[in-house]
């Protein structure tokens, strides 16, 4: 083998192409698996009742709603070769980066998370966001409900890439801010957000009315 061929092989093992694109219905099985993994990570599987069908109906209604002005999922795909041109993405131009790895990554879930788009693409993470509104600012913002990178691929800048994709979109749309909510014990995620420039707001608590409480209030 020539030295240049050897170098190319090594380069393939030590780098990967990452692409963030708008999800569609075909991504639902992977999104469902990713949300389940997030619930397991957060020790909240007792709250996880979404099915592929309910995700599909709620995230991808027909007629479709405009991305970032409604529920929006971006999926992160990885490939060992450059992505082919994406001709069907008028609403959100995919973001592609080459990620240098210190060594080849073993992904035991690669088959389970194969992308519906084929070409050896593996889905490694996602972010789910939707618009909110600040009366103080009189501006729309984006709220990140879920952000997740599968365990095999963490600490390689992919979470940063997902968060930057949402933040960049918010900036481009003239929005006021991007919010997220993190469990108080999730110190790694807190470090992650802080590293991205986020302030952890100490004074706020989530006040949640769950479905049975909503029903109880209907008659009032
Ligand atoms: C949080 C999460 C999305 C970060 O994704 P990631 O791809 O691992 O993050 P990145 O590699 O882009 O990290 C960017 C920076 O965040 C910080 N960071 C990320 N993970 C960290 C960890 N485990 N410990 C300490 N700092 C961390 C670091 O400063 C890191 O930069 P560095 O690697 O150059 O030091 C990912 O760890 C994850 O999916 N965790 C489980 C689910 C979760 O906690 N989601 C957020 C809940 S709202």
Tell me about this structure:
Residues 78-216 form the N-acetyltransferase domain. With 220 residues, this protein is of the alpha+beta class. It has one domain: Gcn5-related N-acetyltransferase (GNAT) (Aminopeptidase). Helices cover 29% and strands 22% of the residues. It has six helices and six strands. It has helices at residues 3-13, 28-41, 52-59, 158-172, 187-195, 211-217; strands spanning 15-22, 72-79, 95-100, 122-134, 139-149, 178-180. The protein has a six-stranded mixed β-sheet, sandwiched between helices. Strand 4 and strand 5 form a beta hairpin. Helix 2 (28-41) packs across helix 3. It is globular. The chain binds coenzyme A. Coenzyme A (COA) binds at residues 38, 41, 147-149, 154-160, 180, 182, 186, 188-189, 191-192, 195.
Summarize the structure.
The chain is an alpha+beta fold and 220 residues long. The chain is built from 6 helices and 6 strands. It has a 6-stranded mixed β-sheet, sandwiched between helices.
Give the arrangement of secondary structure elements.
Blueprint (H helix, E strand, L loop, with lengths): L2 H11 L1 E8 L5 H14 L10 H8 L12 E8 L15 E6 L21 E13 L4 E11 L8 H15 L5 E3 L6 H9 L15 H7 L3
Parallel strand pairs: 5-6
Antiparallel strand pairs: 1-2, 1-3, 2-4, 4-5
Helix pairs in contact: 2-3
The chain binds coenzyme A (COA).
Coenzyme A binds next to helix 2, strand 5, helix 4 and helix 5.
């Amino acid at each position: 083998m020539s030295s240049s061929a050897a170098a190319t092989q090594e380069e393939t093992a030590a780098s990967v192409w990452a692409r963030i694109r708008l999800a569609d219905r075909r991504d639902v099985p992977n999104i469902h698996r990713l949300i389940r993994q997030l619930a397991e990570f957060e020790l909240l599987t007792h709250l996880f009742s979404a099915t592929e069908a309910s995700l599909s109906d709620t995230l991808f209604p027909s007629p479709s709603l405009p991305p970032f002005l409604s529920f929006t999922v971006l999926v992160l795909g990885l490939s060992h070769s450059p992505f082919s041109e994406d001709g069907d993405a008028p609403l959100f131009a995919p973001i592609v980066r080459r990620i240098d790895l210190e060594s080849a990554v073993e992904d035991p879930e690669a088959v389970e998370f194969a992308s519906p788009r084929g070409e050896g693409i593996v889905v490694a993470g996602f972010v789910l966001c939707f618009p909110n509104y600040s009366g103080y600012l009189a501006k729309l913002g984006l709220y990140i409900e879920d952000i997740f990178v599968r365990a095999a691929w963490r600490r390689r800048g992919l979470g940063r890439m997902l968060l930057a994709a949402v933040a960049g979109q918010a900036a481009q749309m003239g929005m006021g801010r991007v919010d997220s909510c993190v469990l108080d014990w999730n110190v790694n995620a807190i470090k992650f957000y802080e590293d991205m420039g986020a302030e952890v707001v100490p004074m706020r608590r989530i006040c949640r009315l769950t479905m049975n409480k909503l029903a109880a209030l209907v008659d009032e």
